[in-house]
Amino acid sequence: MEVAQSLREHIQGLEQQLLRPDVRRSRELLDELLADEFVEFASDGAAYGKSQVIAALQAEPSLHRSLADFHLVQLAEDVLLSTYRSSRHGDAAHEAVESLRSSIWKQREGKWQMIFHQGTVCAKLPGTRRADPGRGIASAPAGQTEKANSKDKEKDMDPVVHFEMPFDNRERMAKFYASAFGWQTQMMGEDMGNYVLATTTETDEKGPKKPGSINGGFFPKKPDWPAQHPSIVIAVDNIKESMKKVTSAGGKVLGDPMEIPGVGQYVSFTDTEGNRISMLQPNPRDSRSSKQGK
Asked: Which terminus of the chain is more solvent-facing, meaning fewer CB atoms within 10 Å of its CB: N or C?
């Protein structure tokens, strides 16, 4: 079924809108362009709905994107299939990538909306580095779908391994989390700053057994401490080097690293948004095991 040139240009224009950073950050515009039943299939086989895609796009970096080799096929009077090649142009912090895309558009009350989208990881093309994992699904899902390159990217990522929250009354706090969520707590002594360890998932000597799960802890509130709010702890290989990276990126390191017996070196910092976060250079596992066994 031949598609009129005017309709072809209209749908191509809608696809180009969805590549623009300002549109991808606008919940109102995305709500107009994506149908309520919209679904996207990621390269890992997972399906994401409209609300998930819109939420993910709010967190992605603002990068220039373009399309080429646009084709449009009319599947029915009010249904169209578009296919094209998408290019994400890189910058100092992001690589340039390309991918193959397909969308299904449906017309309702004179308005075209996307009801389906799929991004297919394609082979390397001349002048490109790697395939773009997703147009609609951003940050987290994109990391899951970029399987072909996940191993080398993991080497550059420092994982979240622990959470921390302040308390006024640790017995009251421990009772609350035990009653509400079944967490187990271990009260540390004065030598450990009255810290409370919290176990939130089944754990052995290697750590949480369930992938993606973390344990945490609680610290006593102190009037002279800055930013006493819930925060996370990031594991790093070299705390001195990571402190330099934090400062270089615009953050502020709060003091010098402290040695936590049997655990490792620990220091807090604030990011560019004023959030207090901590980093930990863990002791080698054999060293931690021997210290804990004494």
From this structure: C
Q: Which of the pair, 59 or 246, is modelled with greater confidence?
A: 246
Backbone angles phi, psi at 234, to 5 degrees: -110, 130
Which of 270, 272, 292, 274 is closest to 283 using CA atoms? 292
Buried b (16+ CB within 10 A) or exposed e, 47-80: ebebebbbebbeebeebebebeebebeeeeeeeb
In a domain, 155, yes or no: no
What CATH code is carried by the domain that includes residue 267?
A: 3.10.180.10
Sequence-ordered list of residues with C-beta below 8 angstroms from that of 197, at least 6 positions apart, any chain: 185, 186, 188, 215, 217
Tokens 């003091």 correspond to: 255
Residue 140 falls inside a structural domain: yes
Q: Domain containing 184: what range?
A: 160-293
Question: How confident is the prediction for the chain on average, in pLDDT?
Answer: 79
DSSP letter at 45 equals: S
3-state secondary structure of 57: helix
